[in-house]
Amino acid sequence: MVTALYGALESGLIYAIMALGVYLTFRILDFPDLTVDGSFVTGGAVSAIMIVNGSDPFISVLAGGAAGFLAGCVTGLLHTHGKINPLLSGIIMMIALYSINLRIMEKPTIPLLNQTTWFKEIGGFWERADLDGILLSLFSVVGLEAYAPKTFLVIISMTLLVIVIKKLIDWMLATEAGLALRATGDNDRMVKSFSANTKGYIIVGLGISNGLVAISGALVSQYNGFADINLGIGMIIVGLASVIIGEGLFGKDRIVRATMAVVLGAVIYRLIISLALRVDFLDASDMKLITAVIVVGALVMPIWWKQMNEKKKRLSRKKEAGATEDEHQKGEGASQIATTEAD
Amino acid sequence: MLQLKQIEKVFYEGTPDEKRALQGVNLKLNEGDFVTVIGSNGAGKSTLLNVIAGVIFPNFGEVTVDNQDVTFVPEHKRAKWIGRVFQDPMAGTAPNMTIEENLALALGRTKKRTLLPGVSSKRRKEFKELLSSIDIGLEDRLNTKVGLLSGGERQALSLVMATFTKPRILLLDEHTAALDPSRAELITRLTEEIVARHQLTTLMVTHQMDQAIKLGNRLMMMDAGQIIFEANEEEKKNLTVEQLIAKFQEIRGKKMANDRSLLTV
Ligand SMILES: Nc1ncnc2c1ncn2[C@@H]1O[C@H](COP(=O)(O)OP(=O)(O)OP(=O)(O)O)[C@@H](O)[C@H]1O
Ligand SMILES: [Mg+2]
Question: Which pLDDT belongs to residue A341?
């Protein structure tokens, strides 16, 4: 149980980088970008093939990110210069990437178990410094050694990396160019009248987003010990789930707040999944269904909640007024939920 | 400085819906001119402003600024010297960004956007002073999201954003029309003040004839894609609303019964 939860924390942190990318398109650019399913794998594919061919694992992550950046830019070009609707641009790119990823990988799976991954590389340093020993002794001091993870390597290193990336995004979105990027998603007619080339911002924004997604994909492959052509299926929904859960729980008022929320959302999503998988009749293959249910829940619950509260208020007001008229709005709730759009 | 020669704009050309929005418009603006534009709905006023701003390109004709042909320069490049305020208070600002972020964005109209912080503490101070000058309390709400402002406040902010970088040409398209009378009054007053302070060359579309007569140094009336009447500084001084309506009837030979309701006095 404890091991599973630490595992969820570890992968949650790695997937958080992908969720930050999804946040950039969905929330900042207001561009529902489905390229993610493909670019996530592209990152893993490029990284894995480079490692197999003897490249430095860290360089391979950067290269994977660069490949994702390019893929995102192409989606942007399809939309801005090909005038293709955003959803369709993303789907086209996702399909195209499936073949491209197979070309890169040459086979559906590339095992990395006997290769030097980035985690093994920094793991060597980690062991020599015996940082686990120090951290474990902290658990022992308070008598919780039974609840300690086997190693803190991934947790600490990924926490640091995610914080750095989060800070970079916060910084970027506060620069002059970043403000124009945000305004492009907020009111593109207005930014154009203030000299911003919105097409350029959309292209670069999608590039950065998919670059992050691909970095996440590269790290996930190295963490899992293999790159897989099907790893990206449904990734966009995982990203969305993280964004929605995070924003719902931790708020989205300011950018710095929202990016933090997205990171935490990604971790919480993994925790929910790992808890769900402990339920007896659910298998690992049910994960996508669970994800779908989580997303629907996260979208519908707040609206339900609001409607219930409003109804309560209405009812209590009626009572106060002493009105005894029959209530005729019973069926209303359900039909409204059915028609509610995703925010 | 700005010159339009024989501008024609046709929408849906060659279809039954064909619409000749501009039919041979000639216009010359001199440095410091403040021209008010009136005309009934569908006369082509917004289309004219859009052609000047590069939002749409004309089918025929030429737009020049300082004798340089800019007819097909895209909107975002032309924005370097054009400031705009739209009719819809929601259109001129980014609702999910704060007041200071919006102002920083507006600064980027004239200079290249960099990777330096958009809102530095130095800029914040300047923004505060800037907003104090319009005196509606926005200077204390720099960190408020613009979406939370009232329509009038947003329009005042839009006006400031469009003008504080001193555009060579200011285009106002019924920018007070969506506001209640007292707010409209405020924005009109601010417009007068700001245009005078920066000596901006301005083209302002309005549906209020008294306002068109009161503001600016020139007036023009449009109908069916053409400029049908112009008044220069001298002529405009003695112009009355009644005369304008008479002019319109005389030139167009139409009954005013319909248009009267559209051209609110
Ligand atoms: N993008 C467009 N596509 C098709 N037709 C258009 C477009 N823009 C304007 N038109 C048509 O061109 C004509 C002139 O429109 P325009 O918006 O310039 O009028 P206006 O003088 O600004 O009117 P109003 O006072 O109602 O704002 C109208 O008949 C309009 O339907
Ligand atoms: Mg108009």
Answer: 40
Work out how many domains chain A is built from and give that number.
Answer: 2
Q: Is B117 close to A194, i.e. CB distance below 8 A? A: no
Does ipTM top 0.85? yes
A265: amino acid identity, one letter? G
Chain A neighbors of B77, CB-CB under 8 A? 195
Q: Which residue of A has its CA nearest to B97?
A: A183
Contact B197, B94 (CB under 8 A): no
Which of A31-35, A142-146, A281-285, B127-131 shows the lowest mean pLDDT across its residues? Answer: A142-146
Chain A interface disruption, residue of B81, B93, B113, B169, most A CBs within 10 A: B113
Atom of ligand 1 nearest to the CA of B47: 18
DSSP secondary structure code for residue A28 in this structure: I
pLDDT tens-digit series, residues A5-18: 899 999 999 999 99
Listed residues A278, A305, A334: the one ending a domain: A278
Contacts of A27 in chain B (CB under 8 A): none
Region of residue B255 (phi > 0: left; psi between -120 and 50: alpha; otherwise: beta): beta
Average pLDDT, chain B: 91
Examine the domain organization and report whether A240 and A325 are in the same domain. no
Do A14 and A64 have their domain in common? yes
pLDDT in tens, A20-37: 999 999 999 999 999 999
Co-location of A307 and A244 in the same domain:
no
Ligand 1: does its nearest atom lie under 6 Å from the Cβ of B220? no
Domain carrying residue A259: 2-278
Q: Is residue A234 domain-shared with residue A312, that is, in the same domain?
A: no
Whether residue A29 is found in the same domain as residue A140: yes
Report if residue A50 sits inside a domain: yes
Distance from CA of B102 to the nearest CA of A (A): 8
Q: Which residues of A touch B109 (CB under 8 A)?
A: 194-195
Amino acid residing at B35 = V
Model pTM score: 0.89
Nearest atom, ligand 1, residue B22 CA: 14
Residue A283: inside a domain, yes or no?
no
DSSP string, A288-327: HHHHHHHHHHHHHHHHHHHHHHHHHHHHHHHHHHT--PPP
CA A23 to chain centre: 7
